[in-house]
Structure formats: C-alpha cells, structure tokens
Amino acid sequence: MKKIYLAYLLLIILSACGSKNTNSVYLNGEIKGLGNDTLYIYGTDKFYNRMDTLLVKDDKFSATLTTDTLASTWLQFSDGTEYPIYLDKGDNIKIKGSAAELTSLEITGNVPNEELTAFQKELKGLSTPSEKALEEKAEAFINSHPSSLVSIYLLEKYFVQKPQPDFSLIKEMTEHMTGGLKDRPYVDELLDLIQEEEKVSVGKTIPYVNLPNAKGTQISRTSFKDKYLLIHFWASWDPQSMEANAALRRIYKKEEKNKLFALWGISLDIDRKEWEEAIKRDTLKWEQSCDFSGWNTAPIKQLAIQALPANLFLSPSGKIEGKNMSEEDIKKKLEEIEQKEKEKKESEKKLKKQNRR
C-alpha cells in the first residue's frame, strides 16, 4: 500500500513539473521596415476583451498572451492600420509581412489565420480587383466556410460596412453559418439589426413617428397629407450631411411648388443653437425637427437608422418606396411620379369624355 502511495505521489510531482499554462498563446512577428515601434492587440468580442502592448525592436516583436477559447482580435499599428488575428490556447502564431503592405500579412499558427492568409493571396492574384470582384471572392469564401471566424470578418468588411448594405444578401450569407458562428456577439447583433431593417424595408409601411419642429409643433408623416415624403436624417456635426443638404437644396429649389412632394429633415443634433445655425447656414427651407437626443432619438431606433446621412422616400400612404437614395435617384423618382400623375389626369379626361357621350 505504501509503495502504491509513493508511486502516485511521484506521478503528481512529475506532472506538476512538466505542466505549463495551457491557456497561453505565443506570438512572434517580423515585419520588414517597421523598425522600432509600438503595436496594440485588442479583442473584438467578449471572449477576449483585454488589450496588450507589443514593443517592436528592429522589425521584430513577440508576446505571450492568454485566452481560454478561440478569439477574434485586432493588431493595431501606430498609423491606425488594423489587421485581424485569431488566437486560441496553445497556439504558436507567426506573423510576417512588410510595413509597406500592412493590410496583407502572412500569419500562420492555426486554421483561421491561415485561411485569411490564403484569401489575401488569392486577392493579390486578381488582375482587376474591382469592388464587385472582391465581393464575389468574399461571398464565395463565406458560403464555403460556414464555421470560420474569417467569414465574420469578410462579411463585415465587404458587405456590412458598405454605405448601403444589402441586408437581404447579408441575411442569406448568415443563414449558411453554423450555430457556433451565429452565437458570436457580432453576428448575434447583426442578426438583430437585420430583423429591425426588415421591419422598415422597401414595401413596408413605416411606424408612427413624431418630433417637434423649431416652434415646438409636433410633426409626423400625417402632417404631409396626400404627398410623397422624403425624410432626411442628418446632423450639423456630420460633414456628409452637409453635402446631402446641398443636394436636397437643389431638389427643393426645383420642387418647392410641387403639391405632390414634401421634405422633412430629422436632425440628430444635441445642441439647439448649432442645429438652428446649420439650418440658417445651409438654407434649409423645408420642415425640420429635432428633440436634441442625438442617436437616442426615438425615430432613429424605430426606423433602424445606422449611419448619417440617411433617407426614406414614402408614398402618400406611408409605404416605403426608397431608402438612402442618391440625388439622381430622387430626381428620377420624382420624374416617375410626375409622369404617373400626367397619365392619371389624361385617363380621367378620357373617362369624362366617354361619360358625356
């Protein structure tokens, strides 16, 4: 019995001596031309929410990090460039590249890093890397890698970040993803966003929204009876909103006397003075509303507005006929409405003539 106990004790001691932190991730990198610098690595989801500093000396850097599960992280360079890195316990990650091409690194050490490296090499092989070609490559990867964390990165980069995301396509691609990938915080939030977007997609009727104008009068869609309505979301602090205001000013100048069309500006400003000064400076003569709640203003959440500037084109009944339309799109839409109105009047005239007979 004593011999068995001693043998068991010896086994425990040997195991302890040979053990190491199994949650460790070893990171080694060499980026030509980086010299002496400071890099940062930080997490993108709840699985890895800490930040680490990496000191670069003579193009090289190394670090020992810890994580208890596969995590999506970002490597941030001093010029602001960010590059995704995937870390899992026990990994030995090696990073190679050039300071001249920080957006195309070669990373090995686990499957997702090597998948992204292979994808980047494939993009380099494109003779004409147009936006459409890049999106097609990204979509093909996402559909053929339903459980890869790289698919989340490509989905966000090539589809979600677009000025006018195609949420039906995004939803279609997420449906191919495995349950584990869908449970990731980013995808979970994205699916919630898509659900909200679907409530205010083209063809749907918008929910009731109202906001006060400068005089304190509550304005809603029903304030513009029997008119097509363009709701424009903007803010005085957003440069792109100023450009959109200029475009709408050109449209308003032409359509001011149009009895079938109206404009309604909803601002995300939080300072009344800045809002009023912007209205005066940009000569915004159409109806304007603001409750000075910024992104917390109710219509923003009700109508799933994610970025500025944004707009919704509504029929007289409140049905959404267009979203985030360009100046040319709006002009074309108004021409179509004018043509329909002419055809309607001509049809009514013919009907009256027939009735007289």
From TrEMBL:
Residues 27-116 form the DUF4369 domain. Residues 338-349 have a biased composition (Basic and acidic residues). Residues 226-320 form the Thioredoxin-like fold domain. It comes from the Bacteria. Keywords: Cytochrome c-type biogenesis, Disulfide bond, Redox-active center, Signal. It is found in: Cell envelope. GO terms for biological process: cytochrome complex assembly. GO terms for cellular component: cell envelope. InterPro entries: DUF4369 (IPR025380), Thioredoxin-like_fold (IPR012336), Thioredoxin-like_sf (IPR036249), Thioredoxin_ResA/DsbE_sf (IPR050553). Residues 338-357 are annotated as: Disordered. PROSITE patterns: PROKAR_LIPOPROTEIN. Residues 1-18 form the signal peptide. This is AhpC/TSA family protein. It comes from Bacteroides uniformis.
